[in-house]
Design a protein that fits this description.
6-stranded parallel sheet; 18 strands; globular; binds CIS-heme D hydroxychlorin gamma-spirolactone 17R, 18S; about 700 residues; alpha/beta; 10-stranded antiparallel sheet
Length: about 700
Amino acid sequence: MAKQKKPTQPEKAFHAGNAGELHQTTDQRDSTLTTNQGVAISDNQNSLRSGERGPTLLEDFILREKITHFDHERIPERIVHARGSGAHGYFQAYGDLSDLTRAGFLCDPSIETPVFARFSTVAGGAGSVDLPRDVRGFAVKFYTQEGNFDLVGNNIPVFFIQDAIKFPDLVHAVKMEPDRGYPQAATAHDTFWDFVSLMPESWHMILWAMSDRAIPRSLRMMEGFGVHTFRFVNAKGESTFVKFHWRPKIGSASVLWDEAVKICGADPDFHRRDLFEAIERGDFPEWELSVQTFDQATADGFPFDVLDATKLIPEEMVPLQPIGKMVLNRNPDNFFAETEQVAFHPGHVVPGIDFSDDPLLQGRLFSYTDTQLSRLGGPNFHQIPVNRPRCPMHNFQRDAIMQMEVPHGRVNYEPNSLDPASVRENPGAGFTTHPATQSGDKLRVRSETFMDHYSQARLFYRSMTAPEQDHIVNAFAFELGKVETPEVRCRVLGHVKNVDAELCERVEQALGMEGQAYNIPPAVEPIDMAPSPALSLLGKAKPTLAGRKIGVLLSDGFELAIVDQLLALAEGEGAVVELIGPHIGEVESDGDTAVSPNHAIAAAPSVLFDSVVLAVSEAGAEAMKREAAVLNFVRDAYAHLKIIGFTASSMALLEMAGIDVDDGVVELDSGGGATAYLDMAKKGRLWPRAAVIKA
Ligand code: HDE
């Protein structure tokens, strides 16, 4: 338990440059503030002026250098995925995959390949909140011994569009509307829904975007997907199609929409903080990498096209094969240098991994280098430390803006005879493209095999558990409730009807628009596929507290023994327990120990925790029971279906909040006590309560 530290005296302010010595030793210089030219700075508090109260002089090169650098601190943010959080770690293969691929890092379990992962929202700007309804980017750079491999995926296995040529339209439609500059980081507005109501191909992805996947509880609890079909190529040159899947070790979880809304206010950096703090405390996030591999004949047998990024291959049709794990164990030293400057590119592949003809992927292969040229300023972005390969890298590309290398010698071309030691191509080790046969007329067409837009959207909806389906209905009701143009709403409903008639009725009812769905004839009549339970997060969730957070509300006089026992048991389950006091100052227990809470109640609403415990004294409960922050803490925890632990002395808070004790409201000082509470808390939420409170 966090015991109160003695407050220390504030340290005296230290001003550099007051050493009073003209000549410094090397040690002194190392700690001396300098300009970018290495000139020691004597005064970092005052600019150069003419007279004590006179104007500042243009001559002040120290001031000008400092301000100029500051003025240029920002670089253009990413056009999409601007808001992100990253971490370093490693990837380790489970075994030898050489029958499928010659990529060395997948064939040797003794190799720990360094990685840098960046998770992001898509639509919002760099300073936007962490929990809008949005797709999350899931990008991993593997610094392999054969070059960098970037798996630039999302937390949803399909995409909105089939052809890269529609990407600028999609992004324009989802981002802030151009005349009014809002909404920030939100799909709930007319231009987005107008666009997708005219794009039947987006409807599978829309169902995912309206689901719990778009409001993850933590970046550490997200699945990730490579989305496109790629190729593995082995040393014999044999190619196999492959889809990549990441699965978090601590399981997946999402927040409820009302929690997301409130978290955005209470802690806009909720996900970034969660990732950073987990790594700081040594609770390293881990994912398992799996693949689905299949050949052309299998692909030909599917009722969809594996080159169409709006389709997935149900795991029940092609099972996942686990091939390795990723552990993130180090936070960036500097957010800008690493997380902001990291440059991912689906075209960064290594020998043994190759592309398919997916037209979305093909467009991406152009886009990512192009965007770095404007974002990072030129073609030398691979020299930025976070982007640099960790294997030897040498060629005759030269010069250009911000060149950091100093190449030696006369020779900067190949072939050459002047430098026999200079680098040459290597047919054996070098990357070779799989010689897929290509033929056909040059056409601007969409294949007939891409035309079934609703079957998999229906598959997704029907594979959800009842609470997950309810959330989809609520999400549509919220989003369309923000759409001002009635025709757009009616057109959207028309697509929802094609996905599932009952879903459409529920959404119509929620909007008060019964029978108003337009009739939109599908290009291809949807088929009913067998439900895929693997698509449901709730369905496959296992009881756990690993990586989850419990908030314990205390007041003076709280029962130390109960709280100490809870802490020990919860930490044994891998949970993080944080103490919340009436204020941030120390709280006295019923013994002679005082504790320092992690939070004051005013700054720690229950939305920031997976489960809460009320452990106040009777006097504390009396004193706090009319405080809005306390009542909201308790009511929200209940309304968000959370498991609430309480001590008998805290009962007044439950009564004041009007809460009936149900299976999810567990007393700590009777019956099974803390163990019974934790067993319930492992289940996450008490879903049947939703019916009682009509959530
Ligand atoms: Fe991206 N995408 N994208 N994208 N994407 C970018 O590259 C683009 C797509 C994804 O953390 C940009 O460096 C096009 C699918 C992630 O830095 C840009 C198309 C998937 C990230 C770009 C797509 C993604 C990006 C913006 C359609 C999932 C963030 C900044 C053809 C498989 C990576 C940048 C990071 C970023 C273009 C579609 C994932 C503009 C043209 C599909 C995770 O180049």
